Amino acid sequence: MQAIVAVDENWAIGSKGNLLVKIPADQKMFRQETTGKVVILGRKTLETFPGGLPLKNRTNIILSRDQGLTVEGAIVVHSVEELLKVLKGYEEDMVYSIGGESIYKLLLPYCDTVHVTKIDHAYEADAYFPDLDKDPDWEVTEESDEQVYFDLTYHFLKYERKGKHV
After folding, report:
1. Three-class SS string for 97-160?
2. Largest interatomic CA distance in the chain
3. Regions of the chain where pLDDT drops below 50
4. Considering the domain boundaries, does residue 93 fall inside one?
5. CA spacing 20 to 30 A to 30: which of 50, 53, 88, 111?
6. d(CA 33, CA 4)
7. How many CB atoms lie within 10 A of CB 79?
8. Number of domains observed in the structure of the chain
9. What is the CATH number of the domain that holds 114?
10. What confidence score (pLDDT) does residue 163 get?
11. Residue 86 falls within a domain, yes or no?
12. Percent of the chain beyond pLDDT 90?
C-alpha cells in the first residue's frame, strides 16, 4: 500500500476540515498517481470532495466507524480488518491511502511508499501526518527540484520504508 499527502514544514495536512493550500501541480500529480487505482479515505475527507462524491475513475473505499454509512459509487468498510479483506482483490501497489489524519495514522503501518508534497511554509493547522523525517524506518528515495507556485516553494518527495519487501 502507498500513501499520498501534501504537508507543510510541520507535517500539517489540514485546518478545520480543509486542505492547507491547493497547488495545481500537486493536484495534477495526485490525479496522475491515483487515477485508475484504489483510494482509501475517511468519511470526513469524502465530504471535502466536490458534491461529497467519490473520486471519478478510481475505486473509492471509505473507512468509517459509522455502521449505517452507505456511499453510492464507493465501497464502505468499518474496520482495518474488513479493509484488508477487501484489498486482497487488488494489487498492493495499486492502493493509496489519501486521508485524512486518522486514516493515514491507521494505515501507515501497512504502507511501504509515501508520496509527499512538502510545502516550505508553516500553516495554522489542526490535522497532521506522522513526521517521516523523524521516523528511522523511512527514508527519502526521490526528491524533485524545487517547485514554485506564486510565493510558495515545495518539493515532491518519495519516502520508502527501509528494508521494504519488494
Report:
1. ECCCHHHHHHHHHHCCEEEEEEECCCCCCCEECCCHHHCCCEEEEEECCCEEECCEEEEEEEEE
2. 46
3. 166
4. yes
5. 88
6. 9
7. 12
8. 1
9. 3.40.430.10
10. 82
11. yes
12. 97
